[in-house]
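Lab notes, practical 5.
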Amino acid sequence: MRFKLTAALAASTVLFVAGCASRPAEPPPPAEAPAAPLPSGFLEKLSADGLFAFGRASIDDFSPAGRTALDELAARLNARPLEIVHVIGHSDRIGNDRANLRLSEQRANAVRAYLIERGVPADRITAVGRGSVEPVVDCEGQRGDALKDCLAPNRRVEVKVEFAR
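Output from the prediction step:
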């Protein structure tokens, strides 16, 4: 009887061990999808007409929509460490070159000051005016209000951003 009990115990042990061994292995947990790489920078083009009155460059002249656009831009700039932010003012060709250069510099500096007031580090942001030397449209043959309207895309402020790596 002792042999039968031992044989029965051995058989049940083999079945138990075999049952454990035949269970399929649990699959490994799914690997997390790698996060999309963050952009290293961007270029924001703002219409000067959307920010300033024609021929003006004061922060007081910012339109409500212009303020909203700059507030949203400042929030994006403050979300990550910055390497550098270049604010570049542009004008159209109406008027003389010296006045257009001065106006584009004043607009770039106004945008820079506004962004600094919204928390963008002053040591990471530059401002420069280019005047009318980098037009995006020519508008040959236009005169008066039609010329002013046609040249609107040239009146802009560009903000080039490079984030720290």
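Observations recorded by the TA: The radius of gyration is 33 Å. The chain has five helices and four strands.
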